[in-house]
Amino acid sequence: MTKQLDEQITGAQSLVRALERAGVDTIFGIPGGAILPAYDPLFDSSIRHVLVRHEQGAGHAAQGYAMVTGRVGVCMATSGPGATNLVTAISDAYMDSVPIVAITGQVASGFIGTDAFQEADIRGITMPITKHSYLVTDPAEIPRVIAEAFHIAGTGRPGPVLVDISKDALQSPTGFEWPTELALPGYRPTTKPHGKQVREATRLLLEAERPVLYVGGGVIKAEASAELKVLAEMAQIPVVTTLTARGAFPDSHPLHMGMPGMHGTVAAVGALQRADLIVSLGARFDDRVTGNLDSFAPDAKVVHADIDPAEISKNRIADVPIVGDAREVIADLVVALQKAAEEDDERGDYAAWRGFLAGLKERYPLSYDRPAQGLAPQTVIERISAIAGPQATYVAGVGQHQMWATNFVDFERPRQWLNSAGAGTMGYAVPAAMGAKVALPDDVVWAIDGDGCFQMTNQELATCAIENIPIKVAVINNSSLGMVRQWQTLFYEGRYSNTDLNTGPESIGARRIPDFVKLADAYGCVGLRCDSEADLDATIEKAMAINDRPVVIDFVVERDAMVWPMIAAGTSNDDIKIARDLAPEWEDDDL
To answer: How many C-beta atoms surround the C-beta of residue 409 within 10 A?
Structure first.
């Protein structure tokens, strides 16, 4: 009996030990009453805890950590408002298939359901936006639940898992037994594609005249970028990469047509619209890519490969559905095409198709007008990309600056680009960049943010300054909620209702509210400002030379710059505009 008592630990100690066994090296979080028992053993743990200033920041930092490493990110919060402050980040991770485990404290089990102080049914709240969730009231279950949570979050289609633990479970004595195997009946993600479906996809590729590889974020999550390059080059098939797949295929490659969709390139949009075969790899036919589904790729057959069977034929019916890991699917397609070429001398002939798309790419490159006065936001982002290079990691918020970043940064490698795609969460950039920099301390990490997004989570600059996380933040400051203003310009007759942020010098006389340079200084960061192209490179280079503190640059840009190309929401991709009232001409081209 004495020996057993000596071996017993608290549930909180069991939790920390389980996290260590799961390989966790960093947790982003804030302590509070219900989770406080876990913070005592964490004090003695090898795990680094980064004390954020808001729980949403903890969640996005866990996302940033996960997206650059491919490992499961971890965030922690207390019950009630602490847990509910994680909801936005959990939803964001769910939409973009990011593997995180969110650990929350809960009121003591005897108080659950009584509306106790700081009680919230966080498991119920997050059930629609988690891959799985747990409520733990028995301390003996903690090791098993943690092991399962990390396995579920990081396998199959990645996603967030919530582990809610009652305070009495954290305080109670228990033993510790790390599971040697996991019993998860019903959870067996299919990774190996069915051979018959791969052969049918191969047949369609060999018969096609205008195929395109429609590449989604699943290719990056499957670590399949090398295999994708082999497939594209061997078969000489054009490639488009979605917002979450930027970097999965090098921008500099002649077969790359760019990003498709609402603000995609003409060549990428044209590739999908005029294709006779779309091979979708880890993509989900999102509305921002397809536009009006009824007019999307009208002549195309579809091969849809995804590790999540629920995505296949959800939006566009697949002629050939393939359930499997993108890396396995692409590898099997490569083998099948090689076999067809070697044994049957069958190869696809797509020369005319490639020539057509190359013509679109040449005639309609991404471009923009420089203002007579002031600084073009696209120029800022182009110069950051040129100076920092593809070895840097880029994180964007949501809005115009996000679209300019995805189109004007040169992406040459996977996990180079982080942004909130599916949820479109303003405030994502700074904390996600923080998480990425914690994971990659020797790499340069740029957060490209808007003046609206930046004001939602910039309190994490304090975390970065105190914790020695020297990110670099480019605030693309047009003194507006830019994307909303663009829509008001185009669709609401220029009635700018509640989109002026008063952050530029033209607002309220000469006052800036806030002054981002002073704000950066108050947070212990270096604050810089640039409002002319003549000073642009020198300002960026100065930021690149500072590596002992975070740097914030207030780039004061022209207010009326717009994101082009653009397809209005709900319209056909055929209605793409390359500037206001100006559309590309591709219908008369002879393929």
So the answer is: 25
Three-state DSSP class for 251?
coil
Which helix H or strand E contains 270, and what residues bound it? Answer: helix 266-274
Tens of pLDDT, residue by residue over 9-39, are: 999 999 999 999 999 999 999 999 999 999 9
- Which pairing describes strands 393-396 and 445-450: parallel, antiparallel, or unpaired? parallel
- The β-bridge relationship of strands 551-556 and 161-166 is unpaired
Is 55 considered catalytic here?
yes
Q: Would the CA dihedral through 371, 372, 373, 379 be positive or negative?
A: positive
Read off the pTM.
Answer: 0.97
The span from the CA of 84 to the CA of 364, in Å, is 46
Gap between the Cα atoms of 174 and 41, Å rounded: 14
**185: CB partners within 8 A, 6+ apart:** none
Q: Tokens 């003695």 identify what position?
A: 44
- DSSP class of residue 221 equals H
400 as an active site residue: the answer is no
Say which of 8, 20, 111, 118 is annotated catalytic. Answer: 118
Consecutive 10-residue averages of pLDDT for the chain (591 residues): 60 98 98 98 98 98 98 98 98 98 98 97 98 98 98 98 98 97 95 98 98 98 98 98 98 98 97 98 97 96 98 97 98 97 91 97 95 93 98 98 98 98 98 98 98 98 98 97 97 96 70 93 98 97 98 96 96 95 75 62
Which is the catalytic residue, given 131, 167, 301, 361? 167
533 noted as active-site residue: no
CB 417 within 8 A of CB 404: no
User: Of these residues, 119, 483, 486, 488, which one is catalytic?
Assistant: 483
Give the pLDDT of residue 507: 54
pLDDT at 39: 98
Q: Helix (H, G, I), strand (E, B), or coil: what is residue 61?
A: helix
63 is catalytic: no
In this structure, which amino acid lies at residue 320? V
Is 483 known to be catalytic? yes
Closest CA to 359 of 367, 347, 351: 351
The one catalytic residue among 117, 192, 491, 518: 117
301-306 and 277-281 beta bridge pairing: parallel
Catalytic, out of 55, 148, 328, 460: 55
